[in-house]
Amino acid sequence: LDYQHVQVPFEITLWIMLASLAKIGFHLYNKLPSVVPESCLLIFVGLIMGGIIYGLNDKSPPVMDSDIFFLYLLPPIVLDAGYFMPSRPFFENIGTILLYAVVGTIWNVFGIGFSLYGICQVTAFHLQDVSLLHNLLFSSLIAAVDPVAVLAVFEEIHVNEKLHILVFGESLLNDAVTVVLYKLFRSFCEMPTITSVDVFAGVGKFFVVGIGGVLVGLTFGMTAAFTTRFTKDIRVIEPLFVFLYSYLCYLTAEMFHLSGIVAIIACAMGMKRYVEANISLKSHTTVKYFMKMWSSVSDTLIFIFLGVSTIGENHEWNWPYICFTVIFSLSNFSFCLMCSCLLSCFSGVLVLTFFVNRFHVNTITSKDQFIIAYGGLRGAICFSLVFLLPDFHRKKLFIAATTVVILFTVFVQGMTIRPLVDLLAVKRKRESAPTVGEQIHIRFLDHLLAGIEDISGHWGQYYWKDKLEYFNSKYLQKILLREYDQPKSSIVLLHEKLERKHAIELAETGQLGHGPSHPSLLNNDRTALPEKKLEDTLNPDVLENIQEILARNLYRIRRTGPAYNRHTLPGETEPVEHAKEILILRHKSL
Amino acid sequence: LDYQHVQVPFEITLWIMLASLAKIGFHLYNKLPSVVPESCLLIFVGLIMGGIIYGLNDKSPPVMDSDIFFLYLLPPIVLDAGYFMPSRPFFENIGTILLYAVVGTIWNVFGIGFSLYGICQVTAFHLQDVSLLHNLLFSSLIAAVDPVAVLAVFEEIHVNEKLHILVFGESLLNDAVTVVLYKLFRSFCEMPTITSVDVFAGVGKFFVVGIGGVLVGLTFGMTAAFTTRFTKDIRVIEPLFVFLYSYLCYLTAEMFHLSGIVAIIACAMGMKRYVEANISLKSHTTVKYFMKMWSSVSDTLIFIFLGVSTIGENHEWNWPYICFTVIFSLSNFSFCLMCSCLLSCFSGVLVLTFFVNRFHVNTITSKDQFIIAYGGLRGAICFSLVFLLPDFHRKKLFIAATTVVILFTVFVQGMTIRPLVDLLAVKRKRESAPTVGEQIHIRFLDHLLAGIEDISGHWGQYYWKDKLEYFNSKYLQKILLREYDQPKSSIVLLHEKLERKHAIELAETGQLGHGPSHPSLLNNDRTALPEKKLEDTLNPDVLENIQEILARNLYRIRRTGPAYNRHTLPGETEPVEHAKEILILRHKSL
């Protein structure tokens, strides 16, 4: 037996296997995941595992290594989040998200920090030795809303798209802020005196870390898209490039002390569109599937490790401090409490929302506000950051407080948020995908609004969106896409996708026919063309031609003016109905 | 800049990126890969990289770590090979493959070892200090035909299926033999005296290592298949299990000093059938795609590292020894040369083939024999094994000889084998997939032969295949498959696959129809059924019913006796023709 030789890969594989089997186990009992979020169950499994290890070895189980977390477990989850981020709602609410992520987080950090410093002044608690700076350092890490935990819970409760993107986008983008604040306070802790120059440098760093991350991400994303132009002959390694470039992008950003999370999201969102057009359909399935799989495994491992790491003797249980931390960080209510209940209902979120609502037509309701505040779960990011703290005599207290906050938010908030959403009757996500008709109307309105903005001289989001689209089709696509001369509109792509899906369904039920085809087309032609010409249209070349015209017209809808025509789109009545109508019509004509 | 922090993953990612970009580069010039095998080009890139590193650092570039090779790079390639191994030709030729792998390899090891010992006795070469045991140890590693190199070359030249499986199967299965011989001679080298008991124990070890590997592999394979029964609700981690179980299987086998390669092949071949039936179509695409991608990257990295490791000062250039090693190991001709050209044409392969041909109806032609002998490429396995040798004063000579043999076989044999195959007019692989008709005939003959063997009391391969099939459907499928009550024959599956493919093609050209369907069915019915009934068959339930009957009948073809009916299968005439015929017929009837 030669265990030493294979130990490292063997143990890694076993952990992943355990995580996957735990996942299967939960899903065998269908009722369990609908009551308790998976993250809680996984932490519970981790606690049991940690207990077993602790019992057997009689020493604390190994703590999750911060390097392993930040270098190997976090990137797949963030990549998955960025790649599948619905870009339209994200960019529509980018202002609100940034406001919450930047102003809200800073607010929280200082709110929690000063409040805890206040608590430390109470002599009964024996905490006078914790300085303000240490409190701020601690609050900077405890204020970081964790995208992994948020995603794990919000994926299961299906709130409406806007609310989801607000909570989730904030949890992703606040990384840049918390990283800066954390590093700033950490270096302040080690400095003998702090000058005002240092503070200004800290403020400047925000922009460097955030915008630098975006730039690194976009650079790698564009390179990835450019690379996939040349993979036509070796389809098999296409999916690799998506993963390689995003990972390199994350590592590069981390190397330059920029925000890796922001970078990988920019990279994924930037490359998605071009990569998707360049790579084959099967490659794309692999990319999507593998990304989901990988992030799911990382996610599972993180929660199990969280549970395992909780057990042990790393903690100092000063209950007043811990309890007040939980209370202060209970979602984003810190400001509310900081102002010592003077403003009672105006928490950080509420004040911010007031400003947001003033400048937006689409207001955020008070229910939504509550869910945003309540959805601020903490997770493995705080946990890893607290272990990275420089050694000082109260580190174990901070570790204990962080552990309790994480367990509290994941268990209590995570488990009660679903009943709360039900209770408040928060608007849910619509079950069905938008119909083609809706999509056309949305697109039509976009163009209309861009035109109105153009005429009124107001440079709003539609104006910029239109300019970006123009730049994209004029320059970017020509460089990045392999077949740039056939820009297909998303509606045509959707139509193709639906047709493909339908074809597979037909094949599976054995209804596939080789006879008269393309009902939407037949439907358009049947009023104008005689019977014989109908059969001519079966010629694939002609059909392709028509489809291309269709694609071009849809795409250039704004540029060519009144080319919009309701006959150039597939109808929305039931396809089976179509087929029957055609049959009846043909019988009659014969 | 904090490079230290991200160094390990950053450098790994960069190496993989380099490998992938090199692959893209070769394929940009279409003519290059058709002349030079990719493996040669990759080694060449590695040599350049090694030269650059050597030039910049002025010391030998890092050598490929044996642990990295055996634990991380080799398993994906072997898994891919095992998973996509065509099981029918493999089992049909298993006897021949085993004969080549076991007897042929032992023959080669002793042939090369004794010949080299003979060379060492020539005083002019200054090699008298290399003992017989050291020569045998060296020959045991240099005789290992490398599946990675063989696969890389033979995938490009498309020889006929049987020849391919013989060369490739031998290169995979000889791992068990070379591992045993290598470890045997290594321990003999360290022992003061060798008793006959040790030799017998060595012979016994063959069976333990080989059969143990198969058992470990099958155990893990069955467990994997069983696990995928329960993944219905979490499709997203299905592909993971295939990889996790195969890797665990490899590591477990290595841990117990069994043959990891044999284990992973048994695991992959064992689980494939059941896993494929259990997991979803998209999961399966991901598994296949990712396996190919991973093995392709490993492959690329191995050849690049081979090139990099070649540069440096690890070598002792005793040219006579090296040249004779190349000559002796030039394919499997060692025996021929060992017998000092007495038997001139009877190389090891030829003698073995003589025996094989006596007991087989399907003889191996002399051309095939030559290609088998010539296709014995050496690669990274030899290279890793030679670095694992215990330190002794002639190790550098062995390293030099191994490097030269590898470069010689990969470059000279790899580049000339394609022209040779053309020159000898070796039977090539047929371009088209077997038609449905052929498949039916093959299956029919299988049943016929099983029946004949049954009656004549001869327990041949068909008898055992039939018994295995019975055991499989009676017990294994019920345990391992989720929906075991619908065993579909491979022909029905093929038909479904073709229909699905056709449907996608139709959808892509826009010819998808919702009208009268399933031409094969219409074709069958049109002689018997009147027009109205034809339209009734459009009902999906009825169709499903018919398909199920079709599936069952095909499956139980042998058990139900004369149920074989040429009308129950899709015809082979052109589908468009069908559609036209149907149209004409309907026009007439109206």
Describe what is shown at a glance.
Chain A is an all-alpha fold and 590 residues long. Chain A is 73% helix and 0% strand. Chains A, B: Belongs to the monovalent cation:proton antiporter 1 (CPA1) transporter (TC 2.A.36) family.
> How does the helix and strand content of chain A classify structurally?
mainly alpha
Helix content of chain A: over 70%
Oligomer: homodimer
Q: Give the integer mean of the pLDDT values of chain A.
A: 74
In total, how many beta strands of chain A?
A: 0
The most extensive interface between chains reads: A-B, 85 and 85 residues
Percentage beta strand of chain A: under 5%
The DSSP helix count of chain A reads 26
Biggest sheet details of chain A: none
Q: What coarse outline of chain A follows from CA principal-axis ratios?
A: globular
State the end-to-end distance of chain A: 82 Å
Backbone CA Rg of chain A: 28 Å
Q: Helices and strands of chain A, in N-to-C order?
A: HHHHHHHHHHHHHHHHHHHHHHHHHH
Q: Extract low-pLDDT stretches of chain A.
A: 333-347, 513-538, 550-578
Organism (chains A, B): Anhinga anhinga (Anhinga)
GO molecular function (chains A, B): potassium:proton antiporter activity; sodium:proton antiporter activity
Domain Cation/H+ exchanger transmembrane (chains A, B): 17-421
Subcellular location (chains A, B): Cell membrane
What does this 3D model show about the protein?
The structure is a homodimer of 590-residue chains. With 590 residues, the first copy, chain A, is an all-alpha fold. Among the domains of chain A are: 63-336 and 348-424, no CATH class; 437-486, no CATH class. Chain A is built from 26 helices and no strands. Chain A has helices spanning 3-28, 31-35, 38-57, 66-83, 87-92, 94-120, 132-142, 147-157, 161-190, 196-227, 238-255, 260-278, 281-310, 319-329, 334-338, 348-359, 366-374, 380-387, 395-424, 436-456, 461-480, 490-509, 519-525, 531-536, 540-555, 575-589. In chain A, α6 (94-120) packs across α9. The longest helix of chain A has 32 residues, at 196-227. The radius of gyration of chain A is 28 Å and the shape is globular. The termini of chain A are far apart. Residues 333-347, 513-538 and 550-578 of chain A have low confidence and may be disordered. The interface between A and B is large, with 85 and 85 residues. Chains A, B: It is found in: Cell membrane. Chains A, B: Residues 17-421 form the Cation/H+ exchanger transmembrane domain. Chains A, B: The chain crosses the membrane at residues 12-29, 35-56, 68-85, 97-120, 132-153, 165-185, 206-228, 240-268, 289-312, 332-359, 371-392, 398-421. Chains A, B: This is Sodium/hydrogen exchanger. Chains A, B: Keywords: Antiport, Cell membrane, Ion transport, Membrane, Sodium, Sodium transport, Transmembrane, Transmembrane helix, Transport.
